[in-house]
From TrEMBL:
Residues 54-73 are annotated as: Disordered. Pfam families: HTH_20. This is Helix-turn-helix domain-containing protein. InterPro entries: ArsR-like_HTH, WH-like_DNA-bd_sf, WH_DNA-bd_sf. It comes from the Bacteria. Gene3D superfamilies: Winged helix-like DNA-binding domain superfamily/Winged helix DNA-binding domain.
Length: 221
């Protein structure tokens, strides 16, 4: 459970952050008006989550060592995230431009990431169409596209790849021209990085209600 999911845990963390020095369980409990066992439970959870540091101070005189807690510096990494909004903002910049130019830029961005993300083939394996297609399928599967090869093309490569899941579905429904251009460029860049004798020539968005279809062809074509 994060601090976002537990208001009480957030309150404990705020008490530590505003304290001029590290606090013990009893001190934190007194400031919050809670039972020490309740505060200790939340402190242990915050320590386990990496948000709070626990240390033992040597006593200045007779007595037992004192366990104190302090908040780790930095923002709460258990807080809310909204990467979809960020993606919408970035896509919105492209969407405001000329449609053809925006799609071309999106495709080129996809190519760059495809070259970066694909795992290279072993140096002793020539980039045959079959092996190159397998490398592309592994990349798409790892990204969450749930790819399925279809058709028997030349040299054992598939003619199409059916994408049964879109990890950016809501964005594709809003800005399909841009998102699908990114996906097409991603496949083209990956195949180019593999030195493949084939490329992705087109991507049919929602060719079927439950899938999109990418078309493959020999690179010379």
């Amino acid at each position: 459970m994060t601090t976002r999911e537990s208001p009480r845990r957030r309150e404990v963390l705020d008490v530590l952050r505003t304290a001029p020095s590290p606090l013990g369980v009893a001190e934190a409990a007194e400031r919050m008006g809670l039972h020490p066992n309740t505060v200790r439970f939340h402190l242990d959870a915050l320590v386990a989550g990496g948000l709070v540091e626990r240390r033992t101070d040597k006593p200045s005189g007779p007595g037992r060592p004192r366990t104190v807690y302090t908040a780790r510096p930095g923002m709460d990494r258990g807080g809310f995230r909204d990467y979809r909004l960020l993606a919408r903002m970035l896509l919105g910049r492209w969407a405001a431009a000329d449609p053809a130019e925006a799609r071309a830029e999106a495709r080129e961005a996809g190519r760059a990431w495809g070259r970066f993300l694909v795992d290279p083939l072993p140096p002793y394996e020539p980039p045959t169409p079959e092996r190159s297609a397998a490398g592309l399928l592994a990349l798409l599967d790892g990204l969450g596209f749930a790819p399925r090869p279809e058709g028997d093309g030349e040299s054992g490569r598939p003619e199409r790849i059916r994408l049964r899941h879109c990890p950016f579905l809501e964005l594709a429904e809003e800005q399909g021209g841009l998102v699908c251009s990114l996906h097409l460029g991603l496949m083209q860049g990956a195949l180019a990085q593999l030195g493949a004798p084939l490329t992705a020539t087109a991507l049919e968005p929602f060719a079927e209600p439950d899938s999109c279809v990418a078309h493959l062809a020999d690179a010379a074509a």
